[in-house]
């Protein structure tokens, strides 16, 4: 579905959102108190009109402390009966946050069950930026759909088709380099990682905008990760359809930038290295030494650390244009989840001003991120004895940092570089965030760009 707000009309029913303990709206009359309404999170009190119909409703938001603990509480409103509702927000609630919650709550993944959202619709809350919020929701819906689609339908061919469809939608230029063409184009590590799969590896290159500063976004597109010859155990393989979450988030970000018109003020390039890390006689092996596009050699000490290999070639390609800002998005390390959990992705940036802008924008956009260091003291860990770099340092410590340090070697040449180690998955149901694929970082990046790009 395409997320959107309903047109306001005289038939739209009032929907009051209420914090626990706050006075209830006088227009609701005595019914909420008489029915025991206490404004618990997600509690709904339907207000009768005295003639067998509805006069409105009140949605409970819980204690005000919930505002800082759990975002998008207004998404509970999608449990209301069908019809058009006019949200009336409590004092102090951010109208953009409320508007986004109302749209995100309508998301359903319907490709295989067909259970599309058919519930309540909402007018845009007063004071909200409808254009911005529509774009944020549309980008998020695209990202979720791509991640939720299993690898039998979202392999390299499927991801290319989705990217091509988005390019047509927003008017972006689109090129793709596939299979052995990658070797001719000097993208050898993308080819090495994906050559064992039935669907060929590829590099997708999309461009939008022809004036202004240069932004290059690189998204990891491993459509399924078996671990390669260093095969994952079955329990670790269950969520590996989400290993293209970086590419999915990059595509969601491109849709947001296009829909808001932000892409008209910059030159956006999206690079998606796409592969399936499979097992066959053609698989790359532990102990292999690969030569990258940049000329750096990489010793493969674990074939399950493949994402950084395909990103490395794409980052090197992107850096050759010396963009003002280059960003990588990748479901890269379990170490990031151990450190910060599934909801708070780390980001890495050497530029303090850019890092501060992104951190502040993430909080404002309700898309949290946490800065982690490119710690120079760990550089030696990614420098093995027989090659320039090691794709999987031994020891098991600081795995997210060493992965970021590895990628930074290939991003040299960009004006500024930011790396996000995202999870791309919502493990438990939360308001506006059903269990399954989820975008992380795109709203934060979009909010930060005006403060980072020249």
UniProtKB/TrEMBL annotation:
Q: What is this protein called?
A: Leucyl aminopeptidase family protein
InterPro entries the record matches: Leucine_aapep/pepB, Macro_dom-like, Peptidase_M17_C, Peptidase_M17_N_1
Keyword list, A-Z: Aminopeptidase, Hydrolase, Manganese, Protease
GO cellular component: a single term: cytoplasm
Limits of the Cytosol aminopeptidase domain: 302-309
- Originating species: Paracoccus subflavus
Pfam families per record: Peptidase_M17 (PF00883), Peptidase_M17_N_1 (PF21337)
A GO biological process of this protein is: proteolysis
In alphabetical order, the GO MF annotations are:
manganese ion binding; metalloaminopeptidase activity
- Similarity comment: Belongs to the peptidase M17 family.
Domain of life, per UniProt, equals: Bacteria
């Amino acid at each position: 579905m395409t997320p959107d707000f309903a047109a306001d009309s005289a038939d739209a029913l009032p929907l009051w959102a209420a914090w626990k303990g706050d006075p209830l709206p006088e227009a609701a009359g005595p019914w909420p108190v008489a029915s025991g309404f206490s404004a618990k999170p997600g509690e709904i009190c339907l207000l009768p009109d005295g003639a067998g119909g509805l006069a409105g409703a009140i949605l409970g938001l819980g204690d005000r402390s919930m505002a800082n603990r759990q975002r998008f509480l207004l998404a509970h409103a999608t449990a209301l009966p069908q019809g058009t509702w006019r949200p009336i927000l409590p004092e102090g609630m951010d109208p953009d946050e409320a508007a986004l919650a109302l749209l995100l709550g309508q998301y359903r993944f319907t490709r295989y069950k067909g259970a599309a959202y058919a519930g309540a619709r909402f007018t845009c809350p007063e004071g909200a930026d409808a254009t911005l919020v529509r774009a944020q929701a549309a980008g998020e819906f695209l990202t979720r759909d791509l991640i939720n689609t299993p690898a039998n339908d979202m392999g390299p061919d499927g991801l290319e088709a989705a990217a091509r469809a988005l390019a047509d939608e927003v008017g972006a230029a689109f090129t793709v380099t596939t299979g052995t063409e990658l070797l001719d184009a000097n993208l050898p590590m993308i080819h090495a990682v994906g050559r064992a799969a039935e669907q060929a590896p590829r590099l997708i290159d999309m461009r939008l905008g022809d004036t202004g500063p240069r932004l290059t976004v690189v998204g990891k597109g491993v459509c399924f990760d078996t671990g390669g010859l260093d095969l994952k155990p079955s329990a670790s393989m269950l969520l590996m359809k989400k290993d293209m979450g970086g590419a999915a988030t990059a595509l969601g970000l491109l849709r947001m930038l296009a829909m808001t018109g932000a892409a008209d003020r910059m030159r956006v390039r999206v690079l998606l290295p796409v592969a399936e890390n499979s097992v066959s006689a053609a698989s790359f092996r532990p102990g292999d030494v690969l030569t990258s596009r940049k000329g750096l050699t990489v010793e493969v000490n674990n074939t399950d650390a493949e994402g950084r290999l395909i990103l490395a070639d794409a980052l090197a390609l992107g850096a050759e244009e010396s963009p003002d800002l280059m960003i990588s998005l990748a479901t890269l390390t379990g170490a990031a989840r151990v450190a910060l959990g599934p909801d708070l992705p780390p980001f890495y940036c050497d530029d303090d001003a850019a890092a501060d802008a992104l951190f502040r924008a993430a909080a404002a956009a309700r898309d949290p991120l946490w800065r982690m260091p490119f710690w120079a003291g760990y550089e030696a860990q990614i420098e093995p004895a027989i090659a320039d770099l090691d794709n999987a340092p031994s020891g098991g410590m600081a795995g997210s940092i060493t992965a970021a340090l590895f990628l930074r070697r290939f991003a040299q040449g960009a004006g500024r570089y930011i790396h996000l180690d995202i999870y791309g998955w919502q493990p438990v149901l939360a308001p506006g965030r059903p269990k399954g694929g989820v975008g992380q970082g795109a709203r934060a990046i979009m909010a930060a760009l005006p403060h980072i790009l020249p």
